[in-house]
């Protein structure tokens, strides 16, 4: 999924507890994490002390990072900015932060999973039916909590990336192998083996 990290300047957009940045740091990268949650960053700092790691953690919005242009070789988001920030804001910001030839890698919910997931008071796994339209998908709000997520159709995501000087290298639609387990109630293994519940996008900045 990731390039060889040794020697890379990386930024994790919406880092949470910064476990992705910690993984990169152990393999020779120079990571920076940014998150809007002070509580998540406090946990990240405790874990840095516990595991003897040290890299910058910024409290701020991944849609507007207080760092200079062309500061990084790799921008990554694993269910951080990739779903909690508006892609029409955070992807241009990732492009600004990356050097020419830099790579953007992000993990999101699969488009089909978002189209098939019921909006109910209690969270329910995706069904085998389309429950909302594909065209126009962008902002998702849920009856079960106050969170807001952002998801785009594949065509719009490709267009947005190209508009920001990215070349799409790969779209990995994850299919779990037989016998996989999860700590989460949704989706079921049967569902995830029939339709992709997660997607990894990889793109390189051309200019």
Helix count from the secondary structure assignment: 7
Contiguous runs where pLDDT drops below 50 for at least 5 residues: none
* Structural shape: globular
Structural class by sheet pairing and helices = alpha/beta
Strand proportion = 25-35%
For the record, the count of structural domains works out to 1
CATH architecture descriptor text = 3-Layer(aba) Sandwich
Give the total of beta strands. Answer: 9
Strand/helix succession: EHEHEEHHEHEEHEHE
CATH superfamily: Vaccinia Virus protein VP39
Give the helix/strand layout:
Elements: E1 9-13, H1 19-26, E2 30-35, H2 38-51, E3 57-59, E4 72-78, H3 81-84, H4 87-97, E5 98-109, H5 111-116, E6 139-141, E7 148-150, H6 154-163, E8 166-173, H7 189-194, E9 198-205
Parallel strand pairs: 1-2, 1-4, 2-3, 4-5
Antiparallel strand pairs: 5-9, 6-7, 8-9
Sum up the structure in keywords.
207 residues; alpha/beta; Rossmann fold; seven-stranded mixed sheet; 7 helices; globular
Structure, described:
The structure is a single chain. This protein is an alpha/beta fold. It has one domain: Rossmann fold (3-Layer(aba) Sandwich), CATH 3.40.50.150. It is built from 7 helices and 9 strands; from the N terminus they run βαβαββααβαββαβαβ. The protein has a 7-stranded mixed beta sheet with strand order 3-2-1-4-5-9-8, sandwiched between helices. β1, α1 and β2 form a beta-alpha-beta unit. It is globular, with a radius of gyration of 17 Å. The relative contact order is 0.15. The mean pLDDT is 95.
